Amino acid sequence: MVNILICDDEKDIVNALKIYLSDAEYHMIEASNGKEAVEKVRQEEVHLAILDIMMPVMDGIEATAKIREFSNIPIILLTAKSEDSDIVLGLNVGADDYITKPFNPVEVSARVKSQLRRYFILRGGTASEETLSVGGIELSDRAKTVTIDGEPVNLTPTEFEILKLMMKNPGKVFSPREIYQEVWKEPALGSENTVAVHIRHLREKTEIDPANPRYIKVMFGRGYYI
Description:
This protein is of the alpha/beta class. Helix content is 41%, strand content 21%. It folds into two domains: 2-122, Rossmann fold; 131-225, Winged helix-like DNA-binding domain superfamily/Winged helix DNA-binding domain (Arc Repressor Mutant, subunit A, Orthogonal Bundle). The strands form three sheets. It has a five-stranded parallel beta sheet, sandwiched between helices. Strands 6-7-8-9 form a four-stranded antiparallel beta sheet, covered by helices on one side. Strands 10-11 form a two-stranded antiparallel sheet. Strand 4, helix 4 (84-92) and strand 5 (97-100) form a beta-alpha-beta unit.
């Protein structure tokens, strides 16, 4: 059984998401504010969280940051605003994806399935035995580990998949759209900011000087490569 946490202070939104995600394999856990969501993730086995950004007591962005202190479960943010600032801020603190209200039921289902697929693969469900090395970076697809010059690096599932994609194709330039399609396994519809934020996080974790990266490079106007 897959446990999905839905956190929104609007009961109608929670009920709508429960209907959209009605599936025999999903068990829904509800919360009405960010503080409650963090407690649920600590106390129960949660495999994915959907958090509204604007909530009382503790908003979704702060809740995401708190959850990231102890868990790498996929987090999808709900935002009623279309401004990039909300979206980028959420991704900056560790969210994996976002959905803008009003949302499309098909989109909600697709994004949840995509995040869960990656999460369970990284937990060892269908891993290959491949080990990749580029310079001082070593990635084990079997163990789902990454080391830099022998030191372990803690990556989120999304960061791991982006790094693996580039390490499998050293020197190949991937546009943000191509990275999104390869990693998220769905069409990239205005998701360039999402990829850019995850690339920045990867650089912060893998580079001695993220502003002058040794590994993850950018070719302006085209995309990223390793």
